[in-house]
Specification:
The chain is an alpha/beta fold. Helices cover about 50% and strands about 10% of the residues. It folds into two domains: about 15-190, Rossmann fold, CATH 3.40.50; about 195-385, Dehydroquinate synthase-like - alpha domain (Dehydroquinate synthase-like, alpha domain), CATH 1.20.1090. The chain has a six-stranded parallel β-sheet with strand order 1-8-5-4-2-3, with helices on both faces. Strands 6-7 form a two-stranded antiparallel ribbon. Helix 5 links the parallel strand 4 and strand 5 (about 145-150). Helix 8 packs antiparallel against helix 9 (about 245-260) and helix 11 crosses helix 15 (about 350-360). The chain is globular and about 55 Å long. The model has no long low-confidence stretch (mean pLDDT about 95).
Length: about 375
């Protein structure tokens, strides 16, 4: 049993659920006395549904501008362009409505506004490295609210993943006040999320919970909450695949994503699945929501010598008590119909060397429970997933 540890509460105000997003956003804008609310949104939600228009109408004269041009993997160019646009609009509150790329952009945009970073190279020196946990950002004057349409759960931590396309490298930028002030969970927003994205992003949320449970620095609250999160997601994802209109199952998935992210909130160190997943996205263009599906069974196998007890609890949460956690997760992925091998997402063995090299730059690699000392250790994990 873990008998020592710590829990750090994040710099946020609320998680709101059980209320329509438009109503919750209006109330939050009023509470924060925001006069120029800038929306960073999913293009699909903006152009093919009426969900964004409901929010605009709910804000009334507090609404400023909508921007829907954030690409997958949240590029530096898009971030600085959005920051300039928001600055020109006089934004005093940012609201993100969409998936992980939109939420990551909304985290870093206030920092770009604060430091007047309107050129992609201006972000150099602010990224998180193994030697520097937080970028040297000042506290931002503008904060953000997140309304996620997927399940990855990145909104529950203060880091943003931004891709430097000139180097094909995804980097982390972090400051405690990049955390959303409020997160609003509305299952109605998720009805338009494509099935593979919904299911795959749910496995990304599970990644947070699994790596927290296996972490070198866990704690009692995180362990209990993450296990419940895994149970919610395991049941909810299977149910929503069978019945996409099941609102309660969608709500349970959102709650599971929140609970699975408790380790991120407490800054419990993540491990190799996060490190490799970031490189697969930034370097190899693998959709972020497929990374856990193809990598987690292999990461669990690699980490088994150091995380035996945690993996037993994980297998039980996945409905397979007594089984190997790696096998239980692989079976679950098969039931969801998601890709299971690197070859299925276009990553061949000739990319393993560069993946190993780039993954060694991650803060998460050094925190993996089974030590990773050099690129060939990463390649060993990759070969298990080939």
């Amino acid at each position: 049993m873990q008998i020592a540890g710590s829990y750090q509460y994040p710099s946020m105000d609320f998680v709101i659920y059980g209320k329509p997003a438009a109503e919750a956003v209006r109330e939050e804008a009023e509470r924060l006395d925001a006069r120029r609310v800038y929306l960073i949104v999913s293009r699909t939600l903006n152009t093919k549904t009426d969900e964004i228009e409901k929010i605009r109408k709910g804000l009334g004269d507090r609404y400023a501008v909508t921007f829907d041009g954030i690409p997958q993997h949240t590029t530096r160019d898009a971030v600085v362009e959005t920051a300039r646009h928001a600055r020109e609009a006089g934004a005093d509150l940012i609201v993100a409505i969409g998936g992980g790329s939109v939420v990551d952009a909304a985290k870093i945009v206030p920092m770009c506004m604060e430091h007047e970073i309107f050129d992609a190279r201006g972000l150099d020196g602010y990224e998180t490295t193994p030697q520097r946990r937080f970028g040297q950002f000042r506290a931002p004057k503008v904060r953000m609210i997140a309304i996620p349409s997927t399940l990855s759960g990145g909104e529950y931590n203060s880091g943003a993943l931004v891709t430097d396309t000139s180097r094909k490298l995804k980097q982390i930028f972090n400051h405690p006040l990049m955390m959303p002030r409020t997160i609003i969970l509305d299952p109605a927003i998720t009805r338009y999320t494509p099935e593979k994205l919904w299911l795959g992003s749910g496995t990304r949320a599970m990644d947070h919970g699994i790596e927290a449970l296996c972490s070198i620095r866990p704690n009692a609250l995180v362990n209990a909450v993450c296990l419940q999160g895994l149970r919610y997601l395991h049941e909810g994802l299977l149910r929503t695949r069978e019945a996409p209109d099941d609102v309660q199952a969608r709500t349970n998935c959102q709650l599971g994503s929140w609970m699975s992210a408790f380790g991120l909130q407490a800054r419990v160190p993540m491990g190799a699945s996060h490190a490799i997943g970031h490189v697969l996205g930034g370097t190899c263009d693998v959709p972020h929501y497929f990374c856990t599906a193809v990598m987690m069974p292999s990461v669990l196998r690699y980490n088994r010598p150091a995380t035996g007890a945690a993996q037993q609890a994980i297998a039980t949460a996945l409905g397979a008590p007594g089984a190997e956690a790696s096998d239980a997760f692989a079976s679950f992925i098969a039931k969801l119909g998601l890709p299971r091998r690197l070859a299925e997402v276009g990553v061949s063995e000739d990319r393993f060397e560069v993946i190993g090299k780039n993954a060694m730059l991650s803060i998460f690699t050094r925190a993996n429970p089974q030590p990773i000392r050099e690129p060939r250790d990463i390649i060993e994990i990759l070969k298990l997933a080939a």
